[in-house]
Design a protein that fits this description.
phosphoprotein; 11-stranded mixed β-sheet; 15 strands; 489 residues; two-stranded antiparallel sheet
Length: 489
């Protein structure tokens, strides 16, 4: 990593030379320059939202939640009172552990201006206080099949058409919840609802520019005023409590100890529709700790997060083919680094360059050794399935980054500036008037929306990178209850 070079003190009667600038030993780059480049990237990557943009965000969110309420009413499959987890950033940004192979490529600026991931529980199991034991006999680590035996007869009746059926020798029938069939049902239901909505357009309603099924994810791009919002909607199974397979993780010391409570970290987990390399796609789900990660992010310093975002921008472009490395791998390495390194070191505001170089070194180390443990289930190696050729190809690419990090940072800055220019150009061509909400008739009744927009803008500004949970009743979608991390609004 970086190493300071200081000159020796001058002998008596001589003038001491000024110290050399701090340099990175491997590349020779000036640490001060790398810090400035990271700050410049952060400035362009983190955009401030004015009242107009905040209102557009609210309008798109309101539309998505209204759509999901209508999906629930189609066949009563989804829970009547549901709790979604809204994450800033799309699936392609690594906010959840889902493979990117089946996803179409969308680019910020070209296809969208802002991106979000919304986890929508198809099933909830929230009535248990003991560790949750899943059926992992047929799966790789971090994965599980889900038998509907855990649920009541009414639930089985609703969902059995989205299950694979296994008949036992004793004549009993077991229904296993199928991620692929659930995703197919979800996409078909969303398509039906959007078709009905578009038959009766309302003033101020977002324009549905794209609806695509990407593997088991439904991606929707909405045009709202002068903004384009990408929503990656993920059907999940939601659990309260903590999985038994991750119990040993709680016994270890962690960087968040004493900063947040264990109850906040282990409040719940999900099964997301993703399978292991050799798993059965129709049956296998992947454990996701997205809710816990939201809490852990509160304990990570801003300088480390900035270095992580800059590093992520570099590797997304560089390691895009073949899609062996996900930004989620980098996120896991950052969490491991937080456990490994002293908190006062990671809190240094001017150490962004050290953190960036360290993340690159960590990622290269993981590739060379073909080893990246899942943060919550360390016995699960997320790179185990990769071939030697693939890991060495990516390791060589990272070597070029490590040899000239400044140049790769400049390239990342140019990419984000180009995306921002495309967004601004679209805004100039688009509407410059205020955007009424879908419920507005264009009169003074949109005044409450203006107040909500200002509140939303304040929440976004004060809580960068945090997620929003929403409790919504499909019979009254005009009154959502927001929760940003552990605070209600």
């Amino acid at each position: 990593m970086a190493a300071p070079l200081a000159s020796k003190a001058g002998s008596a009667g001589t003038t001491s030379k000024p110290p050399f600038p701090e340099l990175d030993f491997r590349s020779g780059a000036r640490v001060e320059e790398l810090n400035k480049l990271i700050q410049e990237f952060t400035k362009h990557d983190q955009r401030e939202y004015d009242d107009q943009r905040a209102l557009e965000i609210h309008t798109a969110k309101d539309f998505i939640f209204s759509m999901l309420g209508m999906v629930q009413k189609l066949d009563q499959k989804l829970p009547v009172a549901n709790e979604y987890l809204l994450l800033s950033g799309g699936v392609r940004e690594g906010v959840v552990d889902i493979d990117l192979d089946d996803l179409n490529v969308y680019a910020r600026g070209t296809d969208y201006d802002m991106d979000f991931t919304l986890l929508v529980p198809a099933l909830k199991l929230h009535d248990r206080n003991q560790p949750v034991t899943l059926d992992m006999r047929h799966s790789a680590l971090c994965h599980s099949w889900l038998s509907l035996r855990l649920f009541d007869e009414g639930t089985i009746s609703k969902w059995k058409d989205c299950c694979t059926i296994v008949d036992h020798i004793n004549g009993a029938t077991n229904y296993f919840f199928s991620p692929t069939k659930v995703a197919d049902w979800f996409y078909d239901s969303i398509s039906i609802v959007l078709s009905e909505i578009q038959k009766k357009p309302q003033r101020g309603m977002p324009k549905v520019e794209k609806v695509e099924k990407n593997g088991t994810i439904i991606s929707i791009i909405l045009g709202v005023g002068s903004s384009r919002m990408l929503y990656d909607i993920v059907p999940v199974v939601s659990f309260k409590g903590w999985p038994a397979v991750a119990q040993s993780w709680l016994m270890e010391n962690h960087f968040w100890d004493g900063k947040i409570t264990e109850e906040e970290v282990i409040s719940g987990f999900y099964l997301v529709p993703a399978c292991s390399y050799k798993g059965k796609k129709d049956n296998e789900w992947r454990l996701s700790f997205a809710r816990s990660e939201v809490q852990l992010k509160k304990c990570i310093s801003s300088s480390l997060m900035q270095a992580y975002q800059a590093c992520k921008a570099i590797i997304i472009k560089l390691l895009s083919r073949p899609k062996a490395i996900s930004p989620y791998h980098l996120r896991s390495m950052m969490l491991w680094a937080c456990d490994r390194l002293p908190a006062n070191y990671l809190a240094q505001e001017d150490y962004g360059a050290h953190f960036l170089l360290g993340l690159i070194d960590d990622l290269q180390h993981c590739l060379v050794n073909k080893m990246c443990p899942n943060y919550f289930i360390p016995q699960c190696n997320m790179l185990e399935h990769l071939s030697e050729e693939t890991v060495m190809l990516h390791a060589r690419k990272l070597s070029s980054v490590r040899s000239d990090p400044a140049e790769h940072l400049r390239t990342a800055i140019e990419h984000v500036k180009a995306a921002n220019r495309l967004t601004l150009e679209l805004q100039r061509r688009g509407s410059t008037t205020s955007i009424p909400s879908p419920q507005s008739d264009g009169g003074d009744t949109n005044q409450p929306d203006d107040r909500l927009a200002k509140k939303l803008q304040q929440l976004v500004t004060e809580n960068p990178g945090k997620s929003i949970s929403v409790f919504i009743n499909p019979d009254d979608v005009t009154r959502p209850h927001f929760r940003i991390d552990d605070k209600f609004f």
